[in-house]
Amino acid sequence: MQKLKYGYGWLIKWVLAAILIGVGLAPVFANGIVYLISGIFIVTFSLLRVYPLLKTLKKEGLRTLNLVEIILDTILGGLLLYVGVRALQEGSSWDPGSAWGLVYKYSLVFVLIFRSIVFFYSVTFLGEKTEQPKFWAHIGLLSLGSIISVLKDFTPKWIAWMLLVIAVLGAIYLAVDGYFGYRNYRKYQAELNADKVKKVKAKKVEKNVSIPSSPSADKPNDQHSILVDKKDDGNDKPTIIN
């Protein structure tokens, strides 16, 4: 069996694209899922940064500042997780009310603005090196947190629609990438089939060229063979052998 040159990663990307759109649509119709997804993202983002940060940061001030941020973000993310799980347990009867709406709003504001403050403080006063994309990304986070903090009618629905937009963009990326992967797979499959056809034709030509001689040509036509025994006296006396 020939080893696959192109796998089925394109199929997995198409499946993930469909799942991503489904996940993006869910928060639009259920507020509790918005809390749940936000909490999972904040907790995951915080905990996965612990070891790499503490391992690579050389200054004690940098390590302490980032560790404080991670602890506070994990607490807020866990709170949002609690609200999301409670919403799923109670179903459609669950009403978050204005209190939990404010908790959600200012949790996002704190996470976004505090992340920006830690970044700019580390770069400005603690000598942390950075890159331009990271700088502008944190400018965006600071701006987004500031905008959310002053919006009076901000609700989790805003984040739900934002998650839907991100999900659709991610799904489009996966679908397009999967399309090119599938196209390369079909090209390889066509080349593989073409090679098989060429091999079959070559075998047929080889058979036609190298036809074995008929076995009857090697046999004598007569049923008897005549051997001539030459004597010393010059008289030829044939001997017939049956």
Question: How would you briefly describe this protein structure?
Answer:
Helices cover 74% and strands 5% of the residues. 18% of the residues are buried.
What does this molecule look like?
The protein has one domain (9-184). It has seven helices and two strands, in the order αααααααββ. The protein has helices at 9-29, 31-47, 50-56, 60-90, 97-125, 132-150, 156-209, and strands at 225-230, 236-241. Strands 1-2 form a two-stranded antiparallel ribbon. The longest helix is centred in the last third of the chain and has 54 residues, at 156-209.
Strand ordering within the main sheet: 1-2
Overall geometry comes to: extended
Number of domains: 1
Strand portion: under 5%
Number of helices: 7
Briefly note the structural class of the backbone: mainly alpha
Oligomer class:
single chain
The first-to-last residue Cα distance is 58 Å
What helical percentage do the residues reach? over 70%
- Largest beta-sheet characterization: 2 strands, antiparallel
Give the SSE order as H and E letters.
Answer: HHHHHHHEE
List segments where confidence is low: pLDDT < 50 over at least 5 consecutive residues.
Answer: 222-231
Number of strands: 2
- Average pLDDT figure: 79
- What's the alpha carbon Rg, rounded to whole Å? 40 Å
